[in-house]
Amino acid sequence: MTGTSTNPETASSVANIATPNARKYLVQLCKHFQHKIPANWAENAGTIEFQFGQCRLSATDGELEIVLASADATQLTQLQDVVARHLVRFAFREELAIAWSRKA
Known about the structure:
By secondary structure, this protein is α+β, with helices and mostly antiparallel strands. The protein has 3 helices and 6 strands; from the N terminus they run αβαββββαβ.
């Protein structure tokens, strides 16, 4: 059972990451996590359902937007860490600037 299906989401953040490989990273993240947790994607959007929150991704030609939502700030911090670590690993050929902004 995922945290987002039973708990109200009260903490969220967003990162807009400049990269020409936005779609590639969106697909890589979704495919990587789908082996253990629910993940789906279409051409320019994807969703990953973690036990401690949800990750929504969208890609344009030059930007990957990641929106995270969790039940609380502690889980949101954990979600930010997990997603950022995996993205950095997939994007080892370029240096990504990942800056999370908390949403109200």
